[in-house]
Amino acid sequence: MKNALALVAVLALLAVSVIGFSGTAQAEEIKMVGVITKIEIAGKDAKTATATLKDNKTENLVVITVNDDLTLDKFKDHRIQEGDEIRCKYEVIDGKNVSKFFRKTAGC
Amino acid sequence: MKSSVSVAAVLLALGLAALPARGAEHPGKEALEKNGYHGPESCEECHPGTAAAFLETVHWKHASKVSNVEGLDPNKEYGMKNRIYVMCNGNDIVNNLKEIPKSPETGKTKFSGCNTCHPGNHLSDVASTGPEAQKAVDCLVCHSSDYDFRQRKPYKDAEGRVVMGQDRSTKAALAISKPTVKNCMVCHEAAGGGVVVKRGFSFTKETDAHAAKGMVCVDCHKAKNHRMPTGLDPNNWATDGLLVSCADTSCHGAKPHKDADLNRHTARIACQTCHIPRTGGAFAKDFTVWEQGSDKFYEPTTLKKEANETTPVYAWYNGTVKNTPHFIGPKGSRQDGKSRITPFKIFQGKAYFEAKTGNLLSMDFAPPMANGDTRAGVASAARTLGMKDPEQVAKNAVPGWQTIYFGSNHLVTKSKSLSCANCHAPNGVLNFKDLGYSDAEIVKLTTPELYLKKLVEKQKEEW
After folding, report:
1. Which of A33, A77, A107 is the closest to B190 by Cβ?
2. Which key words tag this protein in UniProt (chain A) (predicted)?
C-alpha cells in the first residue's frame, strides 16, 4: 500500500516535471554577440562555469552558464579568454542563462 | 559468496586492463621534472634529430612539391605559404603576421597574419632552417595536454620584432603524450577564419562515427618522423608524401560490408559518398567587401553553416586537380577507369583578379582589417610579391568569383549513410545525367526494381 502511494506520488511529480519541461522547451533560444568580461570556473575538474558577456548591441552584461565539455575545456586551457568576442545562443532554464552554443567569432 | 568473488575478479581484470592506458606516462617525465623544459633541446636528449626532421615537414614548411595539380611548376613547392585562392586570399608571405594599422575609429591595433597557424615563433618562421629554427619548434602545442594558450599569442619583443609566443613551462612538458584531438584542432578547427569555417570540420561524438568510438586524429593520420599522411583533397596541395584512405587494408579494405550489393559499388563510388552525406562551414565569402565588427575592425564578408548543415556536390574524381583562376576542383570522368564518384564541399569566393592577365590576386589583410580598404590590401600584397607598379595593379583589379571543391573526408556516419533509394530513386542525391549516364541508363538506374525486394526485407526486419 505504502509503495503504491509512493508510486502515485512519483507519477504525479513526473507529470508536473514533464509539464514543467515542455514549458522550458518552448522557451526561445536567445542569440547574442558579446565580449567576455569575466570567466568564473572552479578548477580543473569543474563541470560548469559562468562567463559574463557584454552584449554588443545593448551593452548589458549577461551571465551565461556553460556546461558543455568542449567549451569548459577551452576555458580551462585558456583557448577562450577574457576579451574574446563570442557568438552565443542560450536558453533561460530555472532563471539561469544556459549556453547552447558558445563560439569565438574570430579565427586564424 | 561465489558471485562476489567473481565480481572481484572482474573488477580486478578491468583494473588491470585499464592499467596500460593509465600507465602510459611519458618515460621522459622524471628527467624533464629535474632539468626543466628549455625547448626542443630538452626532448632531443632522448629523441635526437626530431627537430631537424620536423623542419622538413609540411607542418613547418607549409609547402611541398605537388604533382597532381595542373599548371604548377614541378620543381617549385606550393602550400599555404604561397598559394593564392579564395578561401584565404592571403598567405604566409603576403599576409605575414604583424601589427595591423590602427583603426581610425578606435586608435587600437591588433596582431594578424596567416602564419599564426605555425608551430614556430615567427622569428623562425614558415620554412626557416638551421639551428635557430630547430630551437624554435613548439613541440608542446602538439604533445602537451596541459598547454596554457594564453602564452600562444603574438607580442612585440624588446627589439620591436613580432614574436609568436609559446608555452615553454616545465608544467606543460610534464604532460606529454601522443597528440590528442585538441592538440590538432588548435589549428585545424579554426582554419579559414573561424571555427568550422573552412571545412565544417567538427570532430565530436555527435558529428563523427570515429570520434564516437574514441578515436583521435593520429589513429588515422599515423605520422612517421612527423610526416603526416593525408588524402587527395583537391584544395590541400602540400603533402608529406604519405597517403591515408578509408580503403587502406589496415583500416577497412575495399570490401568492408557484409552486403555484397554495397561492396559492388566501391569500385565506382568513393566510401565518402555514402558515409559523409553532409558537409558544412563557409559556403561563400567576399574579399572585395569587408564587414565591420563590434571592435570596429573589418573581416571578409562570410556566409557560413554549421557542420552537417549543407549538402555536398558530387563529381568523378581520379586524384588529379583542375586549377584555373576561376575554378579549383576534381578532374575525372566515368570513362577513365580511375575515377570514383566523390563528394565535395563546394565553396565560392569573390576576390580581385589582375586586369592584364586574368590571374587571381592575393591580399594583405592588414589594410582592410583596419579600415576596410581592400584594394590597399591588394596593393600591399603586390608590393610584397615584387609585382610591377603595385598601386596600378590594385587600381585596375577586377572583382570576380572562384569556385573551389574541398575534399569532404570527416563527419563520417554509419546510421545516416546513403542507402539504395537515396541514389536510385528519381529524386536521388546523384544527378546521373551530369555524371555522364545516358537517358536509357538513367531509366535503369532509377527503378525500384534495383532495390525493392531488398528494402522490403529490411523493412520487415526493422519492425
Report:
1. A107
2. Signal
